[in-house]
Fold:
Amino acid sequence: MIFWLVCAIMTLVVLVLIVTPLLRPKAVGDDNPDIAIYRAQLSEIDRDLERDLLAADEAERARAEIARRLLAANKEARPQAGAAAPARLTPLIIVSIAAVLSFGLYYSLGAPGYGDMPLNARLAASEEMRANRPDQAELEAAAPAPPPVDLPENYVAAIDQLRIIAPTRPDDLEAWERLSFHEVELRNYAGAANAQEQAIAIKGNAALVSDYERLLDLKVVAAGGLVSPQAEQLIRNILNRDNGNIAARYYLGALYNQTDRPDLALRFWRDIIETGDPNNFHIASARAQVSGAAFRAGVEYAVPEARGPSFEQMDAASEMSAEDRNAMIGGMVSGLAERLASDGGPAEDWARLIRAYGVLGELDAARAVWTEAQQVFVSSMRGMEILTNAARDAGVLDE
Structure:
């Protein structure tokens, strides 16, 4: 209430300063330039009379004539009786428009009821929020349950058996990697993260950055999309090994965005958005959130246009005629297939090729790429997850 009272008083003071000159009566007399001339002539007659350049009777007649003209000029300079009405209406219009615009704009763009928050206090509050946020276990307990998944009963029973067997084989890497993979299929992300941690522990120094990336993905998903202190430590470990790692930089930006530092989130996200593949999961996630972060940080930022057909565009191509669909995807498919055959590439590119063949209806080609990709990424659980989803979308996954 005090805030609004102060705003009203300040607005009133400013409006008074603006409107007062408009209400002040207009000065009469000096607006007609003839008046100044006649007064100057009267003064000149007095000087001529003192210097005996003009006789007394001539001076009197001249004064009378100039006085008559001066009176006439004064009558012409006097404002008309109805001229004051617009001067009172105009200030009223100005006051109304200024008040409506001022309070209307603040109500729509401002933050009514939000307390005063100096920069230092805001930064301190953000740091406190980050330091005191819940840990991984608390976030997992509070995370919403994932949607149910419809899987064959024999498949679920087999995974239940694997859950029993894996703990009895603490050094069996294959068992733990398989458990982590299948827990994802069952949407048990916390269990998948625990199994992935065990697999990394078995690998020891031989664990790859991609293994840690997968663990980071699973921890964040299990926590309902929030970055816990344990996930943050994992981010730091990944960045120590690979400072440009896209997944780690995305999640570090997400952490800052979740703890009221959109300016830092923008810094991390902008870098990967402008230099990476827009079809990458982490980059696509950053692109979806960066506009909101930029707005909250008070920065104008236009998300760069994504180049190349996205998964959504390839899906939309299935509704086109055969000729249009082939024209849209054919060139991309042949070029991508040649590059992967000669130079290889990340799992995301293999997944794009599998999906593209599926959209074109070339299931044999999609199945052949899926088979070859499994051989390339057999040791990468994250890569296999990406490829499995693509194969399922293309309709070539052998359930």
About this structure: Residues 80-86 have pLDDT under 50 and may be disordered. The domain at 133-296 is CATH 1.25.40.10 (Serine Threonine Protein Phosphatase 5, Tetratricopeptide repeat). The chain has three domains: 2-109, 133-296, 311-394. Residues 53 and 329 are 107 Å apart (CA to CA).
